[in-house]
Amino acid sequence: MEPLVINYPIDRQYNLNMALDNLLPTYFKERLGGGRHRGGWRTEFNLHEQSSMAIDELVSWIESILPKVSAYFSKAKKGEGLNFKQDAFKITHMWGIRYDKGNCVTPHNHFPLSLSMGYYIRTPKGCSPLKIEGKKIKVRAGQCIFFLGSDWHSIDPEPIGGRTLIAANILYKP
């Protein structure tokens, strides 16, 4: 299934991205798996539980659009009833990632989690695309890309560096 791309409100994007870009470096602690290359820097997986206005704002926005996201992935047609609770999707893990030049992440998935997503803070011109199930997706700052937790995804070695995002896993908890 195609990923779902939703843009953060344009009028608030710059302020949020600046706040997150300034905040995240204090949380980076170790590397992701990059195979032959070094993986990107990452934070702990509980970023959504930190006390920060910028992170809280992003979490609140993500939670507000999860019903729309869940309806999209259910493949329900307009007017069809859903056989699940749209408000039962919850963020279980959230972490920040920064890819320096040469960093990458090997193909992996997040099964058995329901959904995964990435919110892009910095995407320097020429940065590596996100690959989901072999399809390349050019990423832009302010985009939030949702995909199934079972989808295989990766990032090729970063030619530029400085690409920064917040990733999350979402679980259906009826």
Your description of this structure?
This protein is α+β, with helices and mostly antiparallel strands and 174 residues long. Helix content is 21%, strand content 32%. It has two helices and eleven strands, in the order βαββαββββββββ. The chain has helices at 10-23, 53-74, and strands spanning 4-7, 30-31, 41-42, 89-99, 105-108, 115-122, 130-132, 135-137, 143-148, 153-155, 163-172. The strands form two sheets. It has a seven-stranded antiparallel beta sheet with strand order 1-9-6-11-4-3-2. Strands 5-10-7-8 form a four-stranded antiparallel beta sheet, with no helix packed on it. It starts with a strand and ends with a strand.
Q: What is the secondary structure topology, with strand pairs?
A:
Elements: E1 4-7, H1 10-23, E2 30-31, E3 41-42, H2 53-74, E4 89-99, E5 105-108, E6 115-122, E7 130-132, E8 135-137, E9 143-148, E10 153-155, E11 163-172
Antiparallel strand pairs: 1-9, 2-3, 3-4, 4-11, 5-10, 6-9, 6-11, 7-8, 7-10
Helix pairs in contact: 1-2
